[in-house]
Design goal:
With 368 residues, the chain is an alpha/beta fold. Helices cover 35% and strands 16% of the residues. It folds into two domains: 180 residues, Rossmann fold (3-Layer(aba) Sandwich), CATH 3.40.50; 174 residues, NAD(P)-binding Rossmann-like Domain (Rossmann fold), CATH 3.40.50.720.
């Protein structure tokens, strides 16, 4: 199969869809890999490293998309890339269609077979291709939140770890999945006073056990969320419903009651955000203020640490890239049935129920 790896063009996105190691694995199996010139530079990977691994460097994105049977990316295609998508192209990337309805309609109208990293689910709740970026984003959320709590950044001037004789900063993490667990780890490491909310009691019990009382765990309901948010210096939204739009758990009414200079980092912004006042931002202008509360809503947080993120992503995705390249989409699903959970669009239909609901189109089961 001919596999294309274009340069990411989303604002301040420096990751790339494949490392040289991934290229070497594919070319050793007889596949051809086209990499756009300079695609890896943001992740400190020169073109020469791809050539050494067996890739062919093409000078333009049009060439890469045009010659590839399968395109492997990091972020969802944006408007300038729509014209490059064509019927029966296999697109393997993060799609987040619940928050990208226009893209969803383009994929359907153009007949693109879109397989999304974030909805591949081998067993319920297991999202192996989302996990590495969720871990990065969870850890970065605390880092970003701590920075914007500083007074010169507009924050209330709170040090999360405090110092002897002064109370520690208060962090609330809504959602205890991979993002939330990593955010909790970082916040505890900084010495903050941490509360985590979730509806999964087993997950809360696990966090309670491993942190031995250093974290307050609470069942997530409207009352507990409101109470925790109002008491917080930093709120981290880490809610995920695979393929679906994130529920709005933090309301504007709550924001109006928070202390001025508090910070909210909504990692679930990729799926529309769990904060009522959420709208996506970029790394070059990452924040805005509503009711004196700083909103950090960057939709591609791991793009700020591309060297780490690119390698972590390829480590997770390359197994599936190989399956798809070796067998094609239909045979790959027959061999590994859970791949079907990643198919968001197929021949003009939507096989993923949650994605269909988010796009407002009929759900049609995958039928090769």
């Amino acid at each position: 199969m001919r596999i294309g790896v274009p340069k990411e063009i989303k604002t301040q996105e420096f990751r790339v869809g494949m490392t040289p190691a991934g290229v070497a694995i594919l070319t050793a199996r007889g596949h051809t890999v086209f990499v756009e010139q300079g695609a890896g530079l943001g992740s400190s990977i020169p073109d020469e490293a791809y050539v050494k691994a067996g890739a062919k460097i093409l000078t333009s994105a049009d060439e890469v998309w045009g010659q590839a049977d399968m395109v492997v990316k990091v972020k969802e295609p944006i408007a300038p890339e729509f014209a490059r998508m064509r019927k029966d192209l296999l697109l393997f990337t993060y799609l987040h269609l619940a928050a990208a309805v226009e893209l969803g309609k383009e994929l359907l109208n153009r007949g693109v077979n879109g397989v999304a990293y974030e909805t591949i689910e081998p067993t319920p709740g297991d999202l192996p291709l989302l996990t590495p970026m969720s871990a990065v984003a969870g850890r970065m959320a605390v880092q970003a939140g701590a920075t914007y709590l500083e007074r010169e950044r507009g924050g209330k001037g709170v040090l999360l770890g405090g110092v002897p004789g002064v109370k520690r900063g208060r962090v609330t993490v809504i959602g205890a999945g991979v993002v939330g667990a990593n955010a909790v780890k970082m916040a505890v490491g900084l010495g903050a006073n941490v509360t985590v909310l979730d509806v999964n009691l087993k997950t809360l019990a696990y966090l309670d056990d491993i942190y031995a009382g250093r974290v307050s765990t609470q069942f997530s309901d409207p009352i507990s969320v409101e109470r925790a948010v109002l008491e917080s210096d930093l709120v981290i939204g880490a809610v995920l419903l695979p393929g679906a739009r994130a529920p709005r758990l933090v309301t504007e009414t709550m924001l109006k009651q928070m202390e001025p200079g508090s910070v909210i980092v909504d990692v679930s912004i990729d799926q529309g955000g769990c904060v009522e006042t959420a709208r996506a931002t970029y790394h070059d202008n990452p924040t805005y203020v509503v009711h004196d509360v700083i909103h950090y809503m960057v939709a591609n947080m791991p793009g700020a640490v591309p060297r780490t993120s690119t390698y972590a992503l390829t480590n997770a995705t390359i197994k599936y890239v190989v399956m798809l390249a070796d067998q094609g989409l239909e045979k790959a699903v027959a061999a590994v049935p859970h791949i079907v959970s990643g198919i968001n669009t197929y021949k003009g239909s939507v096989p993923h129920a949650a994605v269909a609901e988010a796009l407002g189109v009929p759900h049609k089961s995958f039928a090769p």
